[in-house]
C-alpha cells in the first residue's frame, strides 16, 4: 500500500527512498540543525514531508554537486531551507527567486547600517566622559592634553564603537 505524499516517513523509508544508509541520516541530524524529525516513544524517528525534501536537497548538494558539509551549512544559514529544497527538486526558477530576494535583503540591511553607523545619537560633548569642561579652549600640543577638536573626534569614534557593539549584540 502506497503512503500519502503528506504522510510522515520512518527513517527506513527515507533511507530507502534517498538511497542512503540510516546512520548517514542520523549523522546529518547532528550536522544540520534544520533536520528535525519527530521522535516518538522508543526514539523512533518520523520525518515530515518538508524534512524529506530538505534531506533530498542536502543529499544533492553533498553527493551530486560536491559541496562539503560546511558549505551546505553556509548555504542553509545564508539562504534558508527553501533554497536547498528548491535545489534538491531542480527548481531553478525558485532558486533564482530566493537568491534575488536574499540579495535584496542584504542590500537593504547594508544601506540601513550605513545610516546608523558613524552618526552619534547625541552631539559630542567633552564633559560627557569627564574629559574637561565645555569652556576649555584649544590646548597646546606640547603639554600632553587633547584639543577640543581632537576630544570631539575621539568622542564620535566612541559613539561609533558603541553602536557597532550594539549591532553585534543584536546579531548574537
UniProtKB/TrEMBL annotation:
<dbReference type="GO" id="GO:0003700">
    <property type="term" value="F:DNA-binding transcription factor activity"/>
</dbReference>
<protein>
    <submittedName>
        <fullName>MerR family transcriptional regulator</fullName>
    </submittedName>
</protein>
<dbReference type="InterPro" id="IPR009061">
    <property type="entry name" value="DNA-bd_dom_put_sf"/>
</dbReference>
<dbReference type="GO" id="GO:0003677">
    <property type="term" value="F:DNA binding"/>
</dbReference>
<feature type="domain" description="HTH merR-type">
    <location>
        <begin position="10"/>
        <end position="78"/>
    </location>
</feature>
<dbReference type="InterPro" id="IPR000551">
    <property type="entry name" value="MerR-type_HTH_dom"/>
</dbReference>
<dbReference type="Pfam" id="PF13411">
    <property type="entry name" value="MerR_1"/>
</dbReference>
<keyword id="KW-0238">DNA-binding</keyword>
<dbReference type="InterPro" id="IPR047057">
    <property type="entry name" value="MerR_fam"/>
</dbReference>
